[in-house]
Amino acid sequence: MLRINVFKIRQNRVELYITTMKAFDLMKYGTIDYWHEKNQTGYQRPLQERRIIKATRYLLDEEGIFPTSILVNVRGRVEFNPSCSVNGFGELGVLTIPDKSLPLLIIDGQHRIMAIKVAAREDLQFENYAVPVSILTLDDSFDEMRQFYVVNSRQKSVPTGLAQRQLSQTILERGEWEVLPFESTKKVMAAEAVPIVDILRTNPQSPWFGKVFLPDEKKQPHHIMSQTSLADSVGQILKVLTKEERNELREDPTPLASLLIDYWSALKEIFPHAFTNPSEYTLQKTNGCYVFHLIFPSVIAFCEDENNLSKEKMKQLLTDMLENFATNEGWTGILGDFWHGTKGHPLAMGTGMKSIKELAKKFLNYLS
After folding, report:
1. CA nearest to 143, candidates 315, 18, 308, 15
2. Which helix (H) or strand (E) element contains residue 217?
3. 39-68 as b/e, with b when 16 or more CB fall inside 10 Å?
4. Hey, is 73 helix, strand or coil?
5. Rounded CA gap, 16 and 135, in Å?
6. Among 178, 192, 268, 329, which is 20 to 30 Å from 318 by CA?
7. Is residue 162 within 8 Å of 215, Cβ to Cβ?
8. What is residue 160's predicted lDDT score, i.e. its pLDDT?
9. Which residue positions in the chain have pLDDT lower than 50?
């Protein structure tokens, strides 16, 4: 059981308990809900050693104060016993948190807490270092995640890939309309693309299988694209869908993901060398992904006109498009080194959206 003196206020129908605690007590009673592939409802990023070192030196060598609150949540029941009212808008009292409602979930402040722990190894006074703490009593991890997302992503301190997943959860829980007034269309479309990306990266039949690294992973030699970049480019497809079509995709992303697997499998058959040595080519990097996702809706429209959504039909359309491009644009190596990272077509080596859109537009001119 944890019993602490608090000042209770209410903000927009949410009760908030403000207090101070020793950082070491927060470590004792608190925990952190990290996101990783086996805990996809988690929301916290891994600790960053660089930030801990910087904060520790600040504590030991500079002003050494952390005046902003550590934000925590109690998912279980608490008991508040008021003692007096203050200024008519808050109450002083004692907050009791029973054992079954512990631990405290640390939403914001994990790096500050860890920096205090490290500083205490050099200066024992930090064992009693007090920090302001704001305590929420939200019911579940989703509400916690929303607080973490709002506090951190708007300050650009959360890795983009993790922010994408947090926004994706919000959209799945509450719908597009809840976030579009506050987020850019690009960010919303990328977040809605995350479940599709998860299928692309985990399906053994997909050319993206095992090649996409997640927010909790360091890039390995077999990785060629981050979740962030791939979701951003798939988001270009979602932009041209109707609201109703996106609603259907949130219910079941498999149909679009299956089409994309066939689409990229067709590209793999057309450009086998680029998929065998992806690091040497730009086809499975930002440039190639954006270009082929920009033209994907038009390819699918042609397939639907002929009532044939097979991989073979996609391959035929793409091959004809590329050969027409080569004939009219004077690029004889369209199926060879076009996407090579150093000796390919200038537009295929560029990474800016201007060159990407120009190349996509050129391809579309020869799609028939």
Report:
1. 15
2. none
3. eeebbbbbeeeeebeebbebbeeeeeebee
4. strand
5. 6
6. 192
7. yes
8. 83
9. none
Of residues 341, 343, 210, 366, the one with CA closest to residue 287: 341
| Beta strand 14-22 pairing with 130-136 | antiparallel
Residue 71 in contact with residue 64, Cβ under 8 Å? Answer: no
C-alpha to C-alpha distance for 223 and 228, rounded to whole angstroms: 13
CB 286 within 8 A of CB 235: no
Q: Cα–Cα–Cα angle for 255, 324, 240, nearest 5°?
A: 35
What are the domain boundaries of the chain?
2-151, 154-365
Quote the tokens at residue 367: 């799609």
Cα gap 249→244, rounded to integer Å: 9
Q: How far apart are CA 28 and CA 16, in angstroms?
A: 21
pTM score of the predicted model: 0.71
**Calpha distance 347→172 (Å, rounded):** 37
How far is Cα 236 from Cα 279, in angstroms, rounded to an integer?
23
Cα first-last separation, the chain: 71
Give Cβ neighbours of residue 260 (< 8 Å, ≥ 6 apart).
196, 200, 234, 296
Residue 177: per-residue pLDDT: 84
